[in-house]
Amino acid sequence: MADPSPWWRGAAIYQVYVRSFCDGNGDGQGDFVGLAGKLDYIKSLGMDAI
């Protein structure tokens, strides 16, 4: 039988404010290109969700 508790109760969740996280196109503001470039890093931290 599956665990009845929600998956997120024991999850490590990494919150990102995209605009200040990582600049991917050189305009000085974070963007989704920058975030996408850091997904492997976030995964390596053991995060369950972003």
Q: Layout of helices and strands, plus pairs?
A:
Elements: H1 18-21, H2 32-37, H3 39-44
Highlighted features:
mainly alpha
Question: What would your notes on this structure say?
Answer:
The protein is mostly helical. The chain has a domain at 12-44. It is 32% helix and 0% strand. The chain has 3 helices and no strands. It has helices at residues 18-21, 32-37, 39-44. The longest helix has 6 residues, at 32-37. The radius of gyration is 14 Å and the shape is elongated. It starts with 17 loop residues before the first helix and ends in a 6-residue tail after the last helix.
Number of strands: 0
Quickly count the helices.
3
For the record, give the distance between the C-alpha atoms at the N and C termini, rounded to a whole number: 28 Å
- Strand content is under 5%
Helix content: 25-40%
Mean pLDDT: 92
Question: How is the main sheet built?
Answer: none
Low-pLDDT runs: none
> What form results from the Cα inertia axes?
elongated
Radius of gyration: 14 Å
- Helix-strand string: HHH
Protein structure class: mainly alpha
